[in-house]
Design brief:
Length: 439
């Protein structure tokens, strides 16, 4: 491998020019696989604790799901996707090609096993168990975001303006009253507003909406500015960041990973952090670690922020997508498509997002498009991430499966990874996140 890389470098370099690829170190302290929000926050906190960190990504930092997402930091999303009623709703949506939820029909054993486990997790007991865990992680993460935002020169657009969940119909608003009550009972602030109350908070809403639920503690940020900015700061503090470095496999020796094979040669590491998002299961499989994750594709459409456009982030209740003001841009993001590791763009779904916001917002004229994007959320069947050391290996930490709230939970996950690597008792109880919990 090393020889192949050297000869490639020699072929590509014009005489007298330096090739802009650094050699991969052969022995490292901690190797982090994946340059998304989870890998980068892990690298940051590990370096803060004095570890020597190398982060590799097959593409680049923030090339995956962490790039074009909605950037919402949402303690209000502490109710997992796997909840009572979700299956019935999902089945209704399956018949509609523009619906916010879709499962591409295919005979895939992993998908079928995942759906079976998901079905089993759609219970009131799963919600009761998951809400306090996700709530504590979300609040802890929000506090870390505030600390990070205080680093001089590190502006990633963090704002704690709350999030408004808007409904066009009284029936859907009433349904969500109950959800809001579950969250309030768990200590998460939520206020149900009629149409006037909602429009007072957000004048860009149409007058014919039914009302909204307001979550005042939620926040938002610009995700690529955060992830890339933190990666840069981490580099300044000694983290080696290696883009275009794909992990191909592992050499295992007993209970340890002896070496990691990459497209740029083999590397030995004292500790390995697997934070490869939706691509983690394939890597885990090579180590005999089963990670039940299905990629759930979502889309975002980013436009220039229009004059008189929304100032608050919103979730458009019936349409099931988010609207996030990000400085001079406005981003619409949503839909959930279980179609495997497939990044093709389904225009019907993108059109549904591009059209759907007009049912909620009174913004005149056309919006100027900046970018259509899609990403793969790494989803577990019970809606909780996989975080911890799998039983089978002494030098691996798994940190993935954050589904729709990976940005929300980024910093706390990075911090917890650091504590697990150090062999300390984690600051937040993470027993429910055990990566072996599905057997
Ligand atoms: C439309 C949409 C909207 C969303 N909105 C929100 C939101 O508002 N709030 C929120 O909290 N979350 C949101 N999410 C979810 C959030 O984006 C994800 O949970 C989060 O980005 C997952 O981060 P990650 O680091 O685990 O994965 P990723 O960001 O996907 O990073 C994984 C990285 O691993 C790399 N990799 C993969 N395989 C290998 C390999 N073999 N070798 C080396 N590198 C490899 C990839 O290139 C990638 O860069 C949204 C997602 C979508 C799609």
């Amino acid at each position: 491998m090393g020889t192949a890389y050297t000869s490639m470098a020699m072929n590509l370099a014009t005489p007298g020019q330096q090739l802009a690829i650094d050699p991969l170190p052969r022995d490292v302290d901690v190797l982090v696989i994946g340059g998304g929000v989870i890998g980068v926050t892990s690298a940051w906190y590990l370096a803060q604790r004095g570890r020597t960190v190398t982060l590799v990504d097959k593409d680049d930092v923030c090339a995956g799901s962490s790039y074009g997402n909605s950037g919402l930091l949402v303690p209000s999303h502490s109710r997992p996707l796997a909840a009572p009623g979700v299956l019935a709703q999902g089945l209704r949506w399956l018949l509609d090609s523009a619906s916010p939820f879709y499962v591409k029909p295919r005979l895939d054993r992993d998908l079928l096993a995942w759906l079976w486990k998901f079905r089993g997790a759609c219970t009131a007991e799963n919600v009761r168990r998951a809400v306090p865990v996700l709530r504590d992680l979300s609040y802890a993460s929000l506090a870390l975001y505030r600390e990070l935002a205080a680093i001089p020169g590190f502006d990633f657009g963090l704002r704690q303006d709350g999030v408004l969940m808007v409904f066009r119909t009284k029936a859907r608003l009433d349904e969500h009253r109950h959800e809001a009550e579950t969250l309030q009972a768990a200590g998460i602030s939520a206020r149900v507003l009629d149409e006037n109350g909602a429009r007072e908070l957000e004048p860009a809403l149409r007058p014919d909406i039914a009302g909204a639920v307001y979550f005042p503690e939620d926040a938002h940020l610009t995700p690529d500015r955060f992830v890339r900015g933190l990666a840069r700061l981490a580099q300044e503090r000694g983290v080696t960041v290696m883009p275009s470095t794909e992990v191909l496999g592992f050499e295992r020796s007993g209970r340890r990973i002896a070496a990691i094979e990459t497209t740029r040669g083999a590397v030995r590491a004292s500790e390995v952090v697997l934070a490869a998002g939706s691509w983690s299961p394939a890597l885990g499989r090579q180590l005999g670690v089963r990670l039940p994750i299905q990629p759930a594709k979502g889309y975002s459409v980013t436009c220039d922020a229009p004059p008189g456009g929304p100032r608050l982030p919103m979730l458009l209740g019936e349409a099931r997508f988010a609207v996030t003001p990000m400085g001079d841009a406005l981003r619409f993001g949503g839909t959930l498509e279980l179609a495997g590791l497939d990044l093709t763009i389904n225009r019907v779904r993108v059109d549904a997002i591009q059209r759907g916001w007009r049912d909620y917002l009174a913004v005149p004229g056309e919006l100027r498009l900046r970018q259509i994007w899609r990403g793969l959320r790494p989803c577990t069947p019970d809606g909780l991430p996989l975080l911890g050391r799998p039983r089978a290996l002494d030098n691996l930490v798994v940190a993935t499966g954050h589904a729709m709230i990976g940005v929300s939970l980024g910093p706390i996950t990075g911090k917890l990874v650091t504590e697990i690597v150090a062999g300390e008792k984690p600051g937040v109880d993470i027993a429910a996140l055990d990566p072996d919990r599905f057997g």
